[in-house]
Structures are given as C-alpha cells and as structure tokens.
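Section handout 9: paired folding examples.
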Amino acid sequence: MSSASVPYCRESWTPLAVRSSDVQAPLPQPNWANDPCTTVAPQLVSLQWRDAYDPSSVQFGEMAYLDLLGTTFFLVYGPDGYAHNRDCVRLLRHFEVVRTLSLVLAYMLEDVEDLGEPHYLMEDMTRLPYVTFLTLLLIANGHSFGASSFHVLRMCTSIRKLMLICTSCLDLEAETACASGCFCDQPPNWKTEELVLNRLQEVEISYLAGTEHDFALVKRLFSWATALKTMTIRGVPRVQKPRG
C-alpha cells in the first residue's frame, strides 16, 4: 500500500505496512469525546495532513521512521481564531523531530478593508519540530513574505537545506508588489534583527517574481546563512504569447 486516508474508527487504525499517507478528505464527525481515533503506522515515512486536526479526537501512535511532515495552509494575516491555523499549530506541536518539514504560508486575496482589521497570526505558531530540510510554499499574492518567513526560520536554525516555492492565485506575469504601507510589511523586525543559520548550506528558490519584496528576503538570507554554499534561484517562466 502506497498511501492511505485515515477513516473514522472507534479505537484504532493499524496499517502496519503503510509508508505514505496523504489525508485530505474531511473526516466524519462522530462523537469524538467517546470515540477517539488512534492511527498506528510504525513504518510511516511520509505524512501529508491537510484536514482538520484535534488531538483529543485523532491520536497518533509511534512513528519512529517518519521522515516528512506536511501540513495544511497557515494564514499569515486574518481574523483571530482561524480554524486552519489552530489545527496546523496543533499538528506541529505533536512532533518533536522530523527530517523534512513542508509548510504552506498563505495570504488572503481580499483587500485589507474586506478583512476589517487583519491580525498578524504568525505569533500563534510558537514551536516547530527539529528539522534539517525545510520547504516553505509561499502563496503571497503580491504581498511581502519576509516577516512570515523570518518567523519560521528563527524556529528552524538547525536546517541544512531550505526550499522556497513562491506561488500565487493571481496571474504570475501581471503580479506586482503591493502598495507601500501595506499591512503585510508588519512587523518589520525581520529587516534588522539578526538571525544565525550557520548550518544552512543550500537554498533553492522557485518562481521568484522579482519584486522588491522578493529580493529583500534574498538579501537577508545571504546575511543569515553564514555557511551557505549554494543558492539556486528560478524565476517565473515566461509564456510566449501568440503573434497576430
């Protein structure tokens, strides 16, 4: 078996040979207080959890071989108490050590006015597992991702490799940096505060749009990663428009 989704069960789910699990579909909603679900997969090496997570409802057995952990998206700015963020934080707190961690940081498409007063939500993420390879998928939609990336990196000073994948819900060719004074530039401490990533040797950045925000973070990475050996930057592929 190559993949599995965790079903509802009264006591436990024990697929001893499962190596990779990608949980995306919403779980049924029984009376979790009386019917917790325990997942037992001691040979599991890859877990991509993109559904709701409540440790009082879904419990994990020992996963001594777990190599990769992926989570649902985490909203950088938005309303307090956002459910996706709460579940993401709960999942991250469960794991102490994992070699590869994949996080998705997302920015809403709505204007600031539509959000009311957006709150900076990254401070709800207070602890991450000990990792050596970090992948950050940044759905920035033209906003600055310096502050959010800095918040994650200062909890991952053990990393040896960093992969940043910049993406957007917008037309990538038409994407431009947001206006000066946008809420996404707060808090600004990432621009001046020192960070030591003295184990980081390799950085890969994909789909960089080339905005001022993008290069501001690249510049800081050079100053933080004092042992950096390789940095690979791939821009947004240009689409050839038909003539005529």
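Moving on to protein 2 of 2.
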Amino acid sequence: MPLAGIALAPLLVSPLGSPSPRGSVAAAAEAARRPRALRRVRCSATAASGGASGDAGELSRATLLWRAAKLPIYSVALVPLTVGSAAAYNQAGLFFATRYFGLLAAAVLVITWLNLSNDVYDSDTGADKNKKESVVNIVGSVCSRMVTRNAANISLLLGFVGLFWAFAEAGDVRFIVLVISAILCGYVYQCPPFRLSYRGLGEPLCFAAFGPLATLAFYFSNSSRSISSGAVLLPLSRTVIASSILVGLTTTLILFCSHFHQIDGDRAVGKMSPLVKIGTKTGATLVTLGVGTLYTLLVTFGISKYLPSSCIVLAVLTLPLGKWIVDYVNKNHDDNTKIFMAKYYCVRLHALFGMALASGLVLARKGMLV
C-alpha cells in the first residue's frame, strides 16, 4: 500500500528540535532540562547562517555531516511519490510495490544531485563561503568541487536509470515527460547559466517541480502495460490535481523559510531571494498567508468534492502544527539563531500533511471516512 512509504517521512525530520504548541512555560522547562542540546542547536543554526567562526568551530564533524546530508529534505522526494501513488490507488485501485520503491530510490538520487550540485554552484558564487556544512567545504581538498560535482552527476545518472525503468514498466509517456520537466526546474533553479534562484524565482520553480509536475508524474507512473491489452493509462483526475497543488504549497514553505537566516550572505553575493527583497517581517506575513492558503484550499477542495472527506478530516489534524509554525516565524523572524529551525518545522508539516492526504485517499477507496 502507498502508506508504507509515507510512514517513513516523519523519521527524516531533524532531531535537533521539536515544535511544542504547549506554550512558553513548557518550553522554558524543556530548556532547563536540556541546556546542552539547546546550545548545540544554537551553534548549528549560527554556523549555517554564516555566524562567527568561533561558534562554527564548536560543531563536531558528525553534526556537520548530518547537516550536509540534509536528510529531512528528502521528504520532498517521498511525499509527491506517495501522494501520487495513493491518488492512483484511489482512482483505479492500482499500486505496484516494486515500482514504488524503485521510484523512491530514483527520486532520492535525483534529490541528492540537487543538493550536491547546489553546494557546488553556491561555492562558485561565494554564497557558501562561511557555510561549514557545505559538502564542498567538508571535503576540503583542492579538488573538493570536482569530487562533489562528479558525485552529483553520478547520482543524477543513476536516478535517470530508475526513472526510465519505471517508464518502461508503466508505458505512459506522460510520466517521463512530467518527471523530466520537474528535473529541468531543478536545473534552471541553480545551475549556470540560468541560476533563477538568484533572481528570486526559486519558489515558483519549487512549487511547479514538487507539486503538479512530480505528483502528477508519480500518479501516471502507476499506469500499467499488459501483453493482452497494451498500456492501460490512468485518466487525469481533479483529485490528483488538487492533491498536487497542496503538496506544492507545503514544499514551497520549506524553501521560503530556509531563506530567513541567510539574508546577509545572499545579499553579499547578489542572490536576490524573496526575503532579501522584502525583509523578514513581510516574509513572516507571507508565511502566515501561505499556511492560511493551504488550509483554505484544503477545505475548498473538500466542499467541491475534488478531495474525499477522509483527506479533509485527516489533514485538518495538522492545523495546530501549521498555526505553531506561523506563531514561531512571526515571533522569531529576525533572530537568525532561532529562525534557522523554521524550515525543519515546515518539513514536519510537509511530511504529516502528505501522510494525511495519502491516508485519506486510501481510506476513501476502501469506503472509510468518505
């Protein structure tokens, strides 16, 4: 079942901190119990935002490797795949476990390429000069850029092998066209000569790549080919379109919140991220609007029957986390040490919201909570 994969998503979230909507008293008590852990969080946040070298020097190599691996970000590979697969199951009762896990491996490899090549090109521009957890900086040798770039290219090549294998299995050209389009969005986002992220266009590209393009692609990957009847293609449904929009919004929140603590470094190298242009206070307002839009669309899609009621019931359960993120960002938007964690809290929302959508689609197919 598609739920087997989405259940892994919360496990990818950074253990450095966890949102607690219980209020400042509980937070203060937790801080008193774990002062050392909190110091490590502050140290990591300061290092990632280009803070003082003294703080960065306190980071252990294990911490640097954890941050360089960006494991929580791999939920952006898991969620579109699982929601798309759940939509296919909801539509036609189709689910191919071998294909699902093969695509999961391919998607992880593509995201690895995205992360490594981003480190390479940000190193070229100087954006990661003080970023101790950059893979290029961790490798540290004179050929670190070449090693990282080669690793990125190998990951992309292996990812394409998996994607074309799935295409051969599904026999649906829409899958391969959409997934390559999503990868091209990642290329023009960060790679020369385009580098559209430096022009403030990262968020639209992120929404398109991980929302409609990737989610629809993975939905179509569940088409089937048989000797007797040829290819059995899934129809484009309003359910998967609605789901892909919501997945795109939660993914874009992650990227947007990752800019808060990097404004000074981005501005210094001419990287005009949205927050460089509008500032953190307006950015916090946009986070509020973004989260509000997410749940407004969820309810709208439920009322219009684009999504089954089971999706609405389960996804609404993530509302306290969404509100907590809004409150946290509005309170700490100008504190680089604390706002660093906002993107990880958005990863949790992304994973849990995606799990709710996928669960709701499967339950609706089984006639539960319809």
